[in-house]
Design goal:
Layout: E1 2-7, H1 13-26, E2 31-35, H2 41-51, H3 60-84, E3 88-92, H4 95-102, H5 110-120, E4 127-132, H6 135-144, H7 157-173, E5 178-182, H8 187-201
Parallel strand pairs: 1-3, 1-4, 2-3, 4-5
Helix pairs in contact: 1-8, 2-3, 3-4, 3-5, 4-5, 4-7
The structure holds adenosine-5'-diphosphate and thymidine-5'-diphosphate.
């Protein structure tokens, strides 16, 4: 089973991905926890080009190509081999992030995103958990980390609001695999909803 966590910056994806992996391992499943951009050595190198530096360092079109190059490496070296070995793969972000961050915030580039995805990636998660919360609170959480990876946070609040709307639209477009989860609560309450959604989808 291939599970992705999505949402705006600071919505708690990495926290929930970790809690979900722990819960599933506790129930006896073999779990691989990974992330994008990154999740394989080459893809982690591309990550640094994307998350550091000036917001206007790359155009949205160039970002689509860089994120897709990183995703292809992640797919070849981490996602596909582990799914083939029968493991549950949980990824902190996947192609929906490109659909929203590059496809729906700086003009309508969704056609370009979908075309490149179809040619180079061509697969979707079985289940996508979208962590949904107020962008102002999420931005405060994210920037408080001072990770040095704030290129997308530095686009500011209107950008984060557009992202939230984009994720809502995706949930409407792919109701079969997407679940919206209220992420403006305590971590344990969110984790319980996340685990329930995964258990309902497990074969
Ligand atoms: P993301 O991966 O979506 O950017 P993180 O899981 O890294 O989010 O969380 C961002 C920050 O918010 C971290 O400092 C984390 O400890 C904190 N955090 C995560 N979940 C919650 C929550 N439910 N309530 C309050 N703070 C949280
Ligand atoms: P991430 O490490 O998940 O950031 P955060 O913890 O702040 O949520 O991802 C790095 C940034 O890359 C994040 O701001 C979202 C952005 N991103 C895209 O713009 N497009 C993509 O396809 C992906 C995977 C991430």
């Amino acid at each position: 089973m291939f599970i992705s966590l999505e949402g705006i910056d600071g919505s708690g994806k990495s926290t929930q991905a970790r809690l979900l992996a722990e819960a599933l391992r506790g129930a006896g499943h073999d779990v691989v926890l990974t992330r994008e951009p990154g999740g394989a050595p080459g893809a982690e190198e591309i990550r640094r080009l994307l998350v550091e530096g000036d917001p206007d360092r790359w155009s949205a079109e160039t970002e689509i190509l860089l994120f897709t190059a990183a995703r292809r490496d992640h797919l070849e070296r981490t996602i596909r081999p582990n799914l083939a070995a029968g493991k549950i793969v949980i990824t902190d972000r996947f192609a929906d992030s490109t659909r929203v961050y590059q496809g729906a915030t700086r003009g309508d580039l969704r056609g370009l995103v979908d075309g490149i995805h179809a040619l180079a990636i061509g697969m979707e998660p079985d289940l996508t958990l979208i962590l949904d919360m107020d962008p102002e609170a999420a931005l405060a959480r994210g920037l408080a980390r001072r990770s040095g990876e704030d290129r997308f946070e530095d686009f500011g609040l209107p950008f984060q609001k557009a992202l939230r709307d984009g994720f809502h639209a995706l949930a409407d477009q792919f109701p079969g695999r997407c679940r919206l989860i209220d992420a403006g609560r305590a971590p344990e309450a969110i984790a319980a909803d996340v685990l329930a959604a995964v258990q309902a989808a497990l074969p």
